[in-house]
Amino acid sequence: MRKIVVLAxxxxxxxxxxxxxxxxxxxxxxxxxxxxxxxxxxLIKALEPELNKIISDKYGREKIWQISKVAKVALIADHTKKxxxxxxxxxxxxxxxxxxxxxxxLDDIDIRIDIPNMFTKDRYKVKNPDMxxxxxxxxxxxxxxMIK
Length: 148
What we know:
Order of helices and strands: HEEHEEEEE
Number of strands: 7
Number of helices: 2
Strand order of the largest sheet: 3-4-5-6-7
Shape: extended
């Protein structure tokens, strides 16, 4: 019995004093913490203002929403035009909180993302930060049925 108590106290001391978080105080006195992020997370953060505008326009006012799933991201290259056009198409499922019915709705959003100079020879030299997001399709789902 005594061995179990000593072992339990030793285990507690080992885990209580270990570093469980990766945070450090930098020179300015702020706490710096590394957080894992995927490339999808970075893309979504860049698109959040545009997605918020699309969702707000659809519902007529700003809503609380959250990305449920990025279903598809495709690079489209249209070589029938001179010069060729390139853009990304993205299919996203978004959970939108409906405060009237106190439920979450599932919305299916398709967008086109145009990035200037994406595949030009000057893409490393010419700075053009204007990314254009265009709505292709917006469908609202409730349960298993689509709202028309």
